[in-house]
Amino acid sequence: MTDTPVEESLFQIIHCFHQYAARQGDVETLSLQELQALLTDNVPRFMDSLGRKEPYYVTELFRAADKNKDNQLCFDEFLYVLGKLVKDYHLQYRRQLCARHCAQHSLY
Amino acid sequence: MTDTPVEESLFQIIHCFHQYAARQGDVETLSLQELQALLTDNVPRFMDSLGRKEPYYVTELFRAADKNKDNQLCFDEFLYVLGKLVKDYHLQYRRQLCARHCAQHSLY
């Protein structure tokens, strides 16, 4: 069975988590440094938003996602971060649509 | 700025939601029929699992996601469904890795 584009997208995101989790320490979980690298390399549009490059931003995000406070993010805990990303890119998606609509109708 | 593969994946999933939401009724939300079509067309691996093709499965999933009980799923409510999908494809990803490892090492 060939994967649909949505299935490929889901696997892409999952593969990204495991690529960074495997870097050091527990190969199944993300450390703070691994999360920082994952976000910087893979979601630059998210990180470019105001304040997200401040060192405390990723630390706070990590702390909020780390439900069991073991200083590591397992895949289920990473879903909290993914939720933030999806919401943020949803806003960007709508902004792009809006900008395209305005350009087509010469609204600026 | 060019999108990274992870960003493209996020936009793909978001675009899919809006494609189906736009079909009928409120163009910003999914009806039960739109959710059914979205899942059947885009995540066949998920739907192929035991019991998910039973009519009540998607009805129950829809009901659980519809937090404000307006009989529509807005994008934030759809995140509940997305969480289920990501967890399911994570299991499939691990099964594929395991099968590949076993094949490489002639474990079957």
Automatic annotation (TrEMBL), chains A, B:
Residues 60-88 form the EF-hand domain. Pfam families: S_100. Keywords: Calcium, Metal-binding. SUPFAM superfamilies: EF-hand (SSF47473). This is EF-hand domain-containing protein. It comes from Saguinus oedipus (Cotton-top tamarin). The lineage of its organism: Eukaryota, Metazoa, Chordata, Craniata, Vertebrata.
